[in-house]
Amino acid sequence: DIQMTQSPSTLSASVGDRVTITCRASQSISNWLAWYQQKPGKAPKVLIYKASSLESGVPSRFSGSGSGTEFTLTISSLQPDDLATYYCQQYTTYWTFGQGTKVEIK
Amino acid sequence: EVQLVESGGDLVQPGGSLRLSCAASGFTFSSYEMNWVRQAPGKGLEWVSYIGRSGSTIYYADSVKGRFTISRDNAKNSLYLQMNSLRAEDTAVYYCAREKSGGDWNYFDYWGQGTLVTVSS
Asked: Cα separation of A5 and A25, whole Å?
């Protein structure tokens, strides 16, 4: 089974800050990685697919990078609406999610 | 507009059974692979089960294999999850999720709002 590990588990940042979340896979997954945003009490929503492709309608302040086993999600300028938990997901063999990163606004 | 609406969640005793439904609209249901994903209270996301477009290909997570059965009715635009021998650790919000079309494996592009299953005596 492919394991996904995110870091940090929680981060606190100010509006306008650049925020980076890391996701590591236990084996190479090429670029078959998605990032989801889940706001409190809501269903997850896809932000990024194929490691770096922005889903339609997602603000351009979100970006993804990486391949193989190391990936990052970057929010270039944190906004109050970005308060959420973010999950990475591999989809090279079945589907596995990271444990999540909770983003708090200072 | 794509919509996925889950129903059937309830409080059930350990060892009991429950059937979840997911009603799909706004797209050609029979053209998409579908999945169930769950989230225990305060925890992360866990993929549960997959079903192919015709229903002939099915996968399960090890944690539910032998206890849960996924199915679909393309004529009714509906996805189901039959859950038997329920355990306390099955307590979660269950989401149905549409898989993006194309390729062998893909990400989930639409999710329902979820239905809560509580397993407790």
From this structure: 7
Contact A96, A4 (CB under 8 A): yes
Of all residues in chain A, the one with the smallest CA distance to B110 is A45
Cis amide leading into A8 (omega within 30): yes
In this structure, chain B runs to a length of 121
Read off the tokens for A76: 């270039």
The beta-carbon neighbor of B95 closest among A43, A87, A99 is: A43
Q: What is the pLDDT along chain A (106 residues), one digit of tens a residue?
A: 999 999 999 999 999 999 999 999 999 999 999 999 999 999 999 999 999 999 999 999 999 999 999 999 999 999 999 999 999 999 999 999 999 999 999 9
**CA–CA min distance A97, chain B (Å):** 6
Name every chain B residue with its beta carbon within 8 A of the beta carbon of A49.
Answer: 100, 107
* Burial of B30 from C-beta contacts in 10 A (0-12 / 13-18 / 19+): middle
Beta bridge partners of residue A90, listed in sequence order: A33, A96
